[in-house]
Structures are given as C-alpha cells and as structure tokens.
Amino acid sequence: MIVHIKEIILKAQKEGYAIGAFNTSNLEMTLGIARAAVVQKSPVIIQVSETAIKYAGLKPITHIVKTIAKNEAVEVPVALHLDHGRSFHSVVECVNAGFSSIMMDASNLPFDENVALTKQATDYAHKRGVWTQGEIGSIKGVEEAIKVSEREAFMTDPEEAEKFVELTGIDTFAPSIGNVHGIGKLREGVPKLDLERLKKIHEKVKIPLVLHGASGLPMSEIKKAIKRGIVIINIDTELRIAFTEALRKVLKEKPEEYDPRKILAPSIEAVQKIVEKKIKMFGSNNKA
Questions:
Q1: Contacts of 170 (CB under 8 A, 6+ apart)
Q2: Longest dimension (CA), the chain
Q3: 3-state SS, residue 154
Q4: How far is the CA of 62 from the CAs of 2, 19, 84, 129, 265, in angstroms?
Q5: DSSP of 74-128
Q6: Contact 89, 121 (CB under 8 A)
Q7: Nearest alpha carbon to residue 174 among 194, 156, 187
Q8: DSSP code at position 152
Q9: What is the pLDDT of residues 68-81, one digit of tens each?
Q10: Which pLDDT does position 172 carry in this prediction?
C-alpha cells in the first residue's frame, strides 16, 4: 500500500532502525523490491531518479510503483520518493504526480544558492503536504578519481549542516561522510565512512539522516551509521548489478529463448534477493 513517507520514517527513527530506499526504473525492478518487502514484512521506499523518469516516463513509472504497491504489497507500507532531483521543475512534476517525498539536490552549487533552491522546493512541497530532502557536501563516485587525501574537502561540515537545515526547513538530510556513488567502489574497494563526522552532524541535526551510496557497505558500518542518526539508506548499484548479471546468465545459457518473461524472471528474483538481504541488515524486517 502507498503511504506517506513520514509514517514509516518517524517510526523507524523512534525505534532505531533504518528504511531501505531502493531505486527502480522499470516493472521488473519494482516487482523485486515489492516482493522482498512483502516476504520480510518491511516498510520500504521505492525511489526514482531523473534519469529513470527520462527512461520510463513520469506517469508510467509512477503508475507502476503505485499499482504494484496496491496489488502486490497490500499489507506493506510503500513510500514513493524522487531521488536526486536537480531542478525545481522535476520537483514540481513529482509533487504533482503524487510523490510523498522529493530530494532537491543542489549540492553542486555554492552554499547560498543551494539554500535558495532547496528552500524554494521545500516551500512548494510543504504547501502540498510533501516532505523534502536536501544535501550539502558532495557525494561523489570513486570513478570521479577523488583521492582519499582530497575526499574530506567534499564532506559535510557539521556547522554548515545545522545552518542548512534551519534555513531550508527540509525534513530529511543527506550528509557526505565518505560515502560514494557508483560501481567503481565495488571494484576498487568501498571507502570507510567518517562515523565521527556523522556523530557530530547528528548532534546538530535532529531530523532523519539519509545515507546515499550505501551499496557494498558492510553490516558493521551500517549498524554504526544507524546508531548515529541514519534512518534512510539508499541502494541502487547493487540492484543494477544483480539485475544485469541474472539477465546475462540467462541469455548466455539459453541463447534460443525468445520469451521476455522467461528471460527477465530471474532478474526479478535476483533483485528481490538483494533487497531482502538489505532489509534484514537495516533492521526493518517485521516492522510493517
């Protein structure tokens, strides 16, 4: 069932576990996520990015998520979120499409401009009952060739985080604490999180914190991050890898197969397997 994100996030924050925010771009990914949530009896956030919307179309992907939530996940809370909205236009479209949460990611801009754009998005969203997420610092990818010695310059300053949240009025906040996006980290080594920095941010920022780029992080890091205020954990890359590896395996082993349903079914199962694993890691199983 589709619910407002605040229903599942405030409960998770109070009880000390995290909710997985899993990216989708098609029917099969969405089915895998929803089925995992049902098996594990877990609330879940299904999120789409601007590139996913460009690929699938806003209305089609929105209807896919809502229809699957209504029919496949009847007793499981599902929230719909815009991941990394880069423009006010994207925010407006998703708010009007029925998302209960949007991210205004202006972290590539100077602080004052980031504040102005995030506040504009927040004001628009809040008037329509929608939550907003913002970010300062920069969550890069290993493939962007950031040296370890230079990574600190891209991390979130706790004092700035406090000021940013106060000025923008956002509901959830995504800090940069050494977490990185993309497949590069899974090939070259997942960097360690700056947990001391996260602790300082949590002391100053009382709203729920979001961990982006969490694919590949070990359970030990995840558990420590949750204790330091992380309530939402984003997973995308691992789902893409599971989906495409299963697809390649089928095509290699059964080159004569022409039925898309038989070709894609293992990919759905592969995504479901990863999501179930993450749900248990985050502690949201049996919390629906």
A1: 118, 122, 132, 133, 134, 164, 207
A2: 60
A3: helix
A4: 11, 20, 16, 18, 22
A5: TTS-EEEEEEEE-SHHHHHHHHHTT-SEEEE--TTS-HHHHHHHHHHHHHHHHTT
A6: no
A7: 156
A8: G
A9: 999 999 999 999 99
A10: 98
Residue count (the chain): 288
- Name the one residue in this structure whose structure tokens are 């590539």: 108
Distance in angstroms (rounded) separating the CA atoms of residues 87 and 37: 31
Query: For 171-216, what is each residue's pLDDT tens digit?
Result: 999 999 987 755 554 445 567 899 999 999 999 999 999 999 888 8
Active site residues per annotation: 83
Residue carrying the six token digits 């049996």: 286
Look at residue 144 and tell me whether its pLDDT is greater than 90: no
Radius of gyration (Cα) for the chain, nearest Å?
A: 18
- DSSP letter for 153, please: G
CATH code for the structural domain at 5-282:
3.20.20.70
If phi over 0 gives left and psi between -120 and 50 gives alpha, with beta otherwise, what is residue 213? left
* Closest alpha carbon to 231 in 198, 274, 270, 200: 198
User: Domain spans of the chain?
Assistant: 5-282
Tokens 């070709």 locate to 263
